[in-house]
Write a structure and sequence with these properties.
The protein is an alpha/beta fold. The strands form three sheets. Strands 3-2-1-6-7-8-12-9 form an eight-stranded mixed β-sheet, with helices on both faces. A two-stranded antiparallel sheet has the order 4-5. Helix 1 runs parallel beside helix 12, helix 5 packs across helix 6 and helix 6 crosses helix 8. The radius of gyration is 18 Å and the shape is globular. The two termini are 26 Å apart. The mean pLDDT is 93.
Length: 306
């Protein structure tokens, strides 16, 4: 692939909220990245990997997918998932959570035997100071890679994650699902860490008209994502999707889409991962504080041809 393209690894919990699928589409169809691989995380990583591989194949790409870690570092899954949600869930033949977007046609797609954590470590050593990690789910894989091999810390070009929020009185989902992992990553000392926060991602809801445009799109990949989105809507009674994860990818395509600010962000492990400004810290990361909404949606629709 073109050596001028940004080397990236997308780390995703694809299969729950539909925005992970849109983020993967945006990353591949932008032709701005050399995607070294896709890694999956949280609960049923193997089936998430097969779903990602199915979507990748529908676009005609041959990119390897590596299943990662199912469980948070310390959090109890039963603490994370409410009783109301648990009552709606089903499990697969291995007793693992079967997300509503799963389709049996995905089961035959081949994924890699190498674990996501090892793949991340190997890739960073193979391409020192070149790889940007893009976690758009819980950061368990990234955190455990850093713990397993701390020598990768100065070799990571950037970590750009979707998560956290400023001045909110609640915990953002990706951080909540594994606050210990988020704390490890945010406090790792990686030279550049960027958090695309709820302050900006929450402004990216698709309208009814835009959802209808997806329904009528002729692309096989868009059709696949639309079908998955309808399953997700039906299962959880959600309405219009919010493009949290695509904004994270888009911010790497066009740096002017979000405004970044350096802050001393920290994770309160005693409050389920509540993020806050900690003036006692020495290290800083960047966080998104405002969004050029028109520019984002223009780029999103142009790349995906919707």
């Amino acid at each position: 692939m073109n050596n001028t393209l940004k080397k990236v690894i997308l780390d995703t919990d694809i299969g729950d909220d539909i925005d992970d699928s849109f983020a993967l589409l945006l990353l591949l169809e932008s032709h701005k990245f050399d995607c070294l691989g896709v890694t999956t995380v949280f609960r049923n990583s193997i089936k998430r990997a097969k779903m990602a591989k199915c979507l990748i194949a529908s676009l005609g790409y041959d990119i390897k997918v590596y299943p990662g870690i199912d469980n948070p570092i310390k959090q109890d899954i039963n603490h994370l998932i409410s009783k109301e949600i648990k009552e709606k869930e089903v499990v697969d033949e291995d007793g693992k959570y079967l997300f509503p977007q799963w389709d049996e046609k995905m089961k035959d797609y081949e994924i890699e035997s190498t674990n996501a954590v090892d793949f991340i470590i190997e890739s960073i050593h193979k391409y020192p100071n070149e790889v940007t990690l893009i976690p758009i789910g819980p950061m368990t894989n990234i955190a455990l890679a850093i713990k397993k091999d701390p020598t990768i810390i100065p070799l990571i070009k950037e970590i750009r994650f979707m998560g956290a929020g400023l001045d909110f009185n609640f915990v953002e989902w990706n951080i909540f699902c594994d606050p210990e992992a988020a704390s490890i990553v945010i406090n790792s000392g990686v030279k550049k860490i960027v958090g695309i926060t709820l302050n900006t991602t929450s402004l990216t809801t698709l309208t009814d008209e835009e959802v209808n445009d997806l329904k009528n799109n002729k692309s096989n990949a868009i059709k696949l994502v639309y079908e998955a989105m309808m399953k997700w809507f039906s299962h959880y009674q959600f309405a219009n999707p919010v493009m949290h994860d695509p904004l994270t990818v888009a911010s790497l395509i066009d740096e002017d889409i979000v405004t970044l600010k350096k802050v001393k962000l920290d994770v309160d492990l005693s409050r389920d991962g509540y993020t806050f400004i900690n003036d006692n810290k020495s290290s800083e990361i960047y966080v998104s504080t405002s969004l050029n909404k028109e520019k984002f949606f223009s780029l999103f629709k142009e790349i995906l041809d919707i």
